[in-house]
Amino acid sequence: MATQPEIDRFVHDHDFLGASHDENARRTLWVVALTAVMMVGEIVAGYVTGSMALLADGFHMATHAGALSVAATAYAYARRHAHNPAFSFGTGKVGDLAGFASALVLALIALGIGVESFLRLFNPITVAFGEATVIAVIGLAVNIASALLLSGHHHAHDHDHSDGHHHGHGHHGHGHGDNNLRSAYLHVLADALTSVLAIAALLAGRYLGWVWLDPVMGMVGGIVIARWSWSLMKDTAFVLLDRTDPHIAQEVREVIEGPGDARITDLHIWRVGPDAHAAIIGVAAADISISAIELRDRLIPVHELRHVTIERY
Predict the structure, then answer these.
(1) Bridge-partner residues for 271, per DSSP?
(2) Spatial distance between the Cα atoms of 77 and 262, rounded to a whole number of angstroms
(3) What is the rounded distance in angstroms from the CA atom of residue 30 to the CA atom of residue 26?
(4) Where on the phi/psi map is residue 242: left (φ > 0), alpha (ψ -120 to 50), or beta?
(5) 147 close to 199: Cβ distance less than 8 angstroms
(6) Of 30, 57, 155, 252, which is least packed with CB atoms within 10 Å of its CB?
(7) Using N-to-C axis directions, what is the helix angle for 52-80 and 179-208, rounded to 10°?
(8) For the purposes of burial, counting CB atoms within 10 Å of the CB of 209, is it exposed (0-12), middle (13-18) or buried (19 or more)?
(9) Structural contact between residues 74 and 98, judged by C-beta atoms closer than 8 angstroms
(10) Which of 172, 171, 174 is nearest to 153 (CA)?
(11) Cα–Cα distance between 178 and 232 in angstroms, integer?
């Protein structure tokens, strides 16, 4: 029978938010503000100058501002409900849900850019090269500033979120798996890419008369953004579907079965936050004296595990 100190070891909460959650939330809010200001500026400039190119880019940026707002809202929601018992394994996956939604938005943006560019290749329109170039350069500067905000280094170890399973073992890996921050970064990067391609096409159109380059660059940008979208969609979907990380599963098998006195009969491992995984492990032990607590202690080196349930047979 477990003693009271042993019982106290395993009392824990379900706060599985990333180590840099609050910092990432602040960075995302700053980027939302920058994007919104640029969006309003482009739309106003488009109406004042009569430039359809500026209007189109302004409304295009509005879709990114909306997606970035979803990312910011996800951070706030996850923090507000981090200790809500209604969420069995915490709110660490809210960011992945927001990231998946952002990936869908990116895919729609890529499709829209591709279709519109293809149509313009055969039906070119008059472009206000000078005005559009100035705004595109300003937009690129805003995107670069936003990218720098979102790509800050988050290498601090997560020492403050260890649960009772791993007391005395402070190593919990690096906070590098925040798909919500990644989705915001990809939206900014997509804007930066379209700005760079647009500037190149506008300069070529203005000085070389290569009007056809504008839609071609648009199609190239659409293809690149679609690839980013697919990568983000795939990774976030794996998290939402509780896909097992094969490397963690292999490490769990090695530490449990390594001594040769126990065998894993059932294994479930899934991600519950940017830096955290949960596990349900069924173990058949030949020696009846091997307790669940001893088996749990064998898992201490598997620093990714933050919530462990062992079924001892």
Answers:
(1) 277
(2) 42
(3) 6
(4) left
(5) no
(6) 155
(7) 170
(8) exposed
(9) yes
(10) 174
(11) 11
147's CB contacts (< 8 A; 6+ apart) are 185, 188, 189, 192
* 2 DSSP 8-state letter: -
What topology does CATH give the domain 246-312?
Answer: Alpha-Beta Plaits (3.30.70)
Distance in angstroms (rounded) separating the CA atoms of residues 77 and 169: 29
Work out whether the CA dihedral 168, 247, 237, 32 comes out positive or negative.
positive
Dist. CA 296–CA 309, nearest whole Å: 8
Q: How far apart are CA 101 and CA 107, in angstroms?
A: 10
Place of tokens 């929601």: 77
The pair of three-digit structure tokens given for residue 29, joined into one six-digit string:
């809010």
Residues 50 and 94: beta-carbon distance below 8 Å: no
What digits encode the pLDDT tens for the residues 145-182?
Answer: 888 888 864 443 333 333 434 433 333 333 347 877 88
Q: Which residues of 137-171 are buried (b: 16+ CB within 10 A; e: fewer)?
A: eebbebbeebbebbeeebeeebeebbbbbbeeeee
**Lowest mean pLDDT across 41-50, 118-127, 129-138, 186-195:** 41-50
User: 127: which 2 tokens?
Assistant: 């472009």
Q: Per residue in 42-78, pLDDT tens?
A: 778 766 755 555 666 677 777 778 888 888 888 888 8
- Domain 13-240 fold is Alpha-lytic protease prodomain-like (1.20.1510)
d(CA 31, CA 106): 17
What is the pTM assigned to this prediction? 0.74
Distances (CA, A) of 191 to 145, 197, 198, 215: 12, 10, 10, 16
CA distance 283 to 262: 7
